[in-house]
């Protein structure tokens, strides 16, 4: 007899052996697989989100179809580190992307101005859709409105909470990442449905905060050591102003691409 659909919540199964076991269509949430040894496994159609894969080694694998979206530091395929090749190709396709790694204040100003221009075009695409579709999720990703709310949280966390050391930089519309710990005093309203103009007003405020930081910043200030005044990123060591601003740039860049991808899907569905 085969048991299916069992619940193993809050159980310690570390050190267990699973041999000739069918785990197809199982759901893993907040599961630790550190040090796991996986052999002769069928991982077809596997979906992994928000995972830390440092030190992963795969040998004897066949990869007829795989997609990876994320931050890639070092990725060696058949002896070749493909990360620099991927970076070069992405910059070739999107020349503005290379501006997202500035080394001086002038470069940061140019990067944020470039994002302003690119996001303006993205917002124009959003306004062309019915307002209710801007609250619609595609493939369980954030809606357009939720994306803008999350970017508000990123600004608050990295600029307000770290660069400006504000212990409570939040706005009620801020939206932390899905796996963030629940912290008293930090907004996390999943059900609120603000209008596009409401979240754009907040974005304008946050953008003005960044501009004020840049206006008062000299190049040597980019290396100023900073620590978080909020419960987030308190474990991070060696942070400086440049790193915090770069995180915000990358968040803005990547989430705009996701947003345009999903807006296209919504547009095609109308």
UniProtKB/TrEMBL annotation:
Record-annotated DinB-like domain positions: 115-258
Xref: InterPro entries: 5peptide_repeat, DinB-like, DinB/YfiT-like
Top-rank taxon, per record: Bacteria
UniProt-listed Pfam families: DinB_2, Pentapeptide
Annotated protein name in UniProt: Pentapeptide repeat-containing protein
Species assigned in the record: Nocardioides exalbidus
């Amino acid at each position: 007899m085969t048991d299916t659909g069992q619940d193993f919540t809050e159980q310690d199964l570390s050190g267990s052996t699973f041999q000739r076991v069918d785990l197809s269509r199982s759901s893993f949430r907040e599961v630790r697989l550190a040090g796991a040894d996986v052999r002769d496994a069928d991982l077809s159609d596997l979906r992994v989100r928000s995972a830390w894969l440092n030190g992963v080694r795969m040998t004897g694998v066949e990869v007829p179809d795989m997609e990876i979206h994320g931050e890639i530091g070092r990725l060696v395929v058949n002896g070749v580190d493909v990360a620099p090749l991927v970076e070069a190709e992405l910059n070739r396709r999107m020349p503005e992307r290379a501006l997202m790694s500035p080394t001086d204040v002038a470069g940061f100003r140019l990067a944020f101005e470039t994002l302003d221009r690119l996001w303006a075009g993205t917002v124009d695409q959003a306004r062309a859709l019915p307002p209710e579709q801007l609250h619609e999720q595609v493939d369980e990703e954030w809606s357009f409105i939720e994306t803008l709310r999350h970017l508000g949280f990123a600004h608050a966390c990295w600029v307000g909470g770290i660069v400006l050391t504000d212990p409570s930089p939040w706005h009620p519309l801020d939206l932390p990442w899905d796996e963030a710990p629940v912290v008293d005093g930090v907004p996390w309203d999943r059900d609120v449905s603000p209008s596009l103009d409401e979240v754009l007003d907040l974005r304008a405020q946050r953008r003005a905060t960044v501009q004020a930081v840049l206006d008062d910043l000299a190049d040597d200030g980019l290396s100023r050591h900073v620590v978080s005044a909020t419960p987030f990123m308190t474990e991070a060591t060696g942070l400086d102003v440049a790193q915090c601003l770069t995180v915000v740039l990358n968040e803005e860049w990547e989430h705009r691409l996701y947003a345009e991808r999903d807006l296209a899907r919504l547009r095609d569905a109308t």
